[in-house]
Every structure is written in C-alpha cells, then in structure tokens.
Design a protein that fits this description.
With 465 residues, the chain is an alpha/beta fold. It has two domains: 266 residues, 3-Layer(aba) Sandwich (Rossmann fold), CATH 3.40.50; 180 residues, 3-Layer(aba) Sandwich (Rossmann fold). The protein has 16 helices and 16 strands. Strands 3-2-1-4-5-8-9 form a seven-stranded parallel sheet, sandwiched between helices. It has a seven-stranded mixed sheet with strand order 12-13-11-10-14-15-16, with helices on both faces. It has a two-stranded antiparallel ribbon with strand order 6-7. α14 packs across α15. It is globular.
C-alpha cells in the first residue's frame, strides 16, 4: 500500500507512463516540472522500469514517489522484458501491449487506495494505456492523455485515420491531408503501419482503434511542445477531441531535466568533443528503437568520412570497442549522454531519426537537424523540421530510401556537408537558435508552457473541490 502523504497545500497527480523510453522520459520531466511548482506526483510503473527511472529522477525529492506493479506474464513476451526497448522484434509489440493491459487490476487497486489517503486531482496516462480512462471514470477522476508526438504529426495522423485520403494509392503517390491549417501533401510511404493501411483485420490497427477511442474521450491531452512552435497545429489537433477537452502545451519537457553536468564526469565522448573545434562535429544517433541494416551502416560510415565533417556516431547492437576513434570521428557503441552532447559547443549538427524527444532536445540547444525518419511518425517529424520550422534539412527526398532501398554514402555525404557548411545549414542554424530562445522563454515563469501547466493544475483542483 502506498504511504500516506504528509499534509500539504500542494496538489497530487498520478502519472502512468507507457513502458518505452521515448514515452517515459518526458513524463518523468513532467514530474520534475510539477515538483518545481510545489505539487506531488505518484508514478506507477513496473520493477525493471523503476530502476531506470531512478537514474533520471531526483531520488531525494519527497514530492515524487514510485509505486511498482509486477509486470504480467504474456506467453509471447520474453521473461524480464518490461520495456519495448528490450523487445527482440517489433512483431512482439502487440503482445507486449496486451501484457500491459493485464496491469489493470493492480492499477485499479492502487488508485482506490490513493483516493482514500491522498486523492489525486487527475491521472496522466500514456495514449497506449487507453483502459485507464475507464479506471479514472469509475472513481470520478479526470484522465489526461499524453502523446509522445508533436502537434503537427498528431494532426496528420488523426486526419488520415478519420478521412482515409490514402486509400487505394501507391506508396509514392502524393495526396493532400484534409482539414489542415495549411496545405500538407504527403505519400503513404511517410505514414507508419497501421496508420497507412487502416486494415480492420490487422491486430495492430484493432488496438489502435481501441486506444484511439479512449484518447479522444479523455478530459484533455498533454502535448510535449510549446504553443509558439506549432500554434495552428495545436488548434487543429485539439479539434479531434471531445467538446470541452483541451490540448495543453507544457513543453519542451526536456528543459525540466537535471543539469547535463551530471553526465560529464569522465565520459570519453565528452572528453573527445572537448578536443574538437566549435561547431565542427555532427552528432549521429538513431535512437533506441530503430534497427539499421549492415548495408546501410556501411553507407553511413562512407558518407560521414567523405563529408569532411567531424562526427560522433552512436551505434547500437554492434560488437567492438565501446569507443573507437577514427580519422575524422568517434564511434560509440554504448549509451551516451545525449543532452550533454547536444549542449556541447563542438556540436554543429544532429543527424537524427527525428523521434520527437530528440527533435526537441536538439532545438532547445540551438542545434540544426539532418532528419532521417525511419519508423512511427518520424518521417512526419523530419518534414516539420524542414518545411514548417525551418530548423533542418532531410536526408530522404523524392523517394530516396523508400521500399527498403539503401541511401548511398554519396547522398549522405552531400547532406552532411550542406548541414554543416552550406547555406541551408546556416539558415537552419540561425532558426534553431531562435527556437531555442523561444523554448526557454516558454517554460520560464510567465511563459506559455509554464502558465499552461499552472492553469491546468488549478483548473483540475477547482473541479475536485
């Protein structure tokens, strides 16, 4: 049973992240933000996820506590696999999601106990935990849904699910997305499965429908963005929810992380960056979920060497030395402190898979992006980076890399050179610096995101009185 909280005038929020790093970390930062305002958070998770969470959270903070629930057994999910980052295949995502649904009895019990000893003003739960809407309604608690995506990409995904303009088209045939605040033309290749197909017989689509219905019926949605970054798209996105539900822009949440100075001590990649010239290094990382083929890895290596730029390249799942220094760069085969890397003065660009967290972490430090979307909504994020925000350029253009084809080293080399030394790169760098300043203003007291979060808490607290 959770310990009884001390008497306080602050408010209590229950937070239930999905078990994937990209979904979890922003919600941990949200708890930091709430704590800085004097509010308390209870994070519900599973034992192995709690271990990694404690490395991100300030364990000495009495306003943030963790409650652990045993991870349910599911025949198809390997034992001790409690996070999507540990799944041996993306084909196991649906069984993994079904396993998380078995957490409901334990979750409901904890929630009932909390309503007695420390009543929460709301539950913030991930999009994939759609069943928590019923749990919250049963106890009369508002449920706010959290998406790990930006407003632009979410608006497009919502629209194509509602209107299905991609029906019957080829992968490369362009179509216009209905209901957008400005014209958006994409192809099916830029959409992820199951959104591109909307196949009612696909188990992934069936689950998407299930959580999607709970999503739009929720009492509000938290968006990891700031209003000034995507104003028209936030308004568009909000329109897909039930009447009275609001989209609350509370980001960039990464600005509530602990100081990157914590990661600097005796880190080889930071030491190596310290020997490079200001703005001379392109940082290359494709996140924790993307699997890059060996053939594509060879082309990336070729492109980086030929680009003439220094590079720090994070490689996953490859045997070899943890850190391997080459003529023009450093290869890291272990985790590196990404935020500490991006805020280093030697970094001049970021070749990224364009997961939304990585996009925001890059922009808050004024680093322009070479976008290479690979899975989920990443191609749409790469599109917003280049076409809407003007803070980077894309690797994939005019069908390059579609259908599993390799992007050749020559193409990669040219894109890296353009980002680091070309006119488009200079413009993107200037724009990224402007975005960084606006982002910091948004989360500062009186800024749009700070005010939105404060108003949200007070609004919810008023409804509970």
């Amino acid at each position: 049973m959770p310990e009884e909280a001390p008497l306080t005038s602050s408010h209590h929020i229950v937070v239930f992240p999905f078990m994937a790093q990209g979904h979890t970390i922003p919600l941990l930062y949200l708890c930091n933000a709430l704590s800085s305002m004097g509010h308390r958070s209870t994070i519900i998770t599973t034992p192995l996820n709690a271990i990694s969470m404690r490395r991100t959270l300030d364990c000495q903070n009495p306003k943030i506590r963790l409650i652990e629930l045993p991870f349910p057994e599911e025949p198809a999910v390997p034992r001790n696999c409690e996070n999507t980052d540990q799944l041996p295949s993306v084909d196991l995502f649906v069984p993994f999601l079904k396993a998380t649904q078995k957490l409901r009895p334990q979750f409901d019990q904890i929630l009932e106990e909390l309503t007695v000893i420390d009543p929460p003003i709301c539950i913030v739960s991930d999009f994939f935990h759609g069943w928590t809407l019923d749990s919250a309604k049963r106890l009369g608690i508002p449920r706010l849904v959290f998406h790990g995506m930006g407003a632009y990409s979410m608006s497009i995904c919502k629209s194509v699910c509602v209107h299905y303009p991609q029906k019957g088209l080829t992968e490369t045939e362009p179509f216009r997305v209905p209901g957008m605040p400005s014209p958006v033309v994409i192809t099916r290749a830029e959409l992820s499965s199951p959104v591109k197909d909307l196949d009612p017989n696909d188990p992934s689509f069936q689950l998407l429908c299930e959580v999607g219905l709970a999503d739009i019926e929720s009492d509000g949605v938290l968006v990891n963005t700031f209003y000034e970054l995507e104003p028209a798209w936030v308004d568009c996105f909000e329109g897909f929810y039930k009447k009275g539900s609001r989209a609350w822009c509370v980001g960039p949440l990464c600005l509530y992380s602990r100081s990157p100075q914590d990661a600097l001590d005796s880190n080889p990649c930071i030491d190596w960056l310290g020997r490079q010239e200001v703005g001379s290094v392109v940082y290359v990382s494709f996140g924790t979920q993307v699997a890059v083929s060996r053939g594509q890895m060879r082309e990336i290596a070729l492109g980086l060497e030929r680009s003439g730029a220094k590079y720090l390249w994070v490689v996953r799942g490859e045997e070899g030395e943890e850190f391997e220094e080459r003529e023009n760069g450093l290869i890291a085969r272990v985790w590196v402190p990404q935020v500490a890397v991006l805020c280093h003065v030697a970094i001049g660009g970021f070749m990224s898979h364009c997961g939304w967290n990585s996009v925001l972490e890059s922009l808050v430090h004024g680093v322009p992006i070479l976008g290479w979307g690979m899975i989920a909504e990443q191609q749409l994020n790469a599109k917003v980076v280049e076409e809407v925000l003007g803070v980077g350029i894309r690797v994939l253009e005019e069908g390059e890399g579609e259908g599993g084809n390799l992007v050749e080293g020559e193409v990669i080399s040219g894109k890296v050179a353009e980002l680091m030394r070309g006119e488009r790169g200079r413009k993107a760098r200037r724009r990224a610096a402007e975005v960084a300043e606006a982002a910091r203003e948004a989360v500062a007291p009186g800024g749009s995101s700070y005010t939105a979060l404060a108003n949200l808490v007070e609004d919810l607290a008023g409804k509970r009185r």
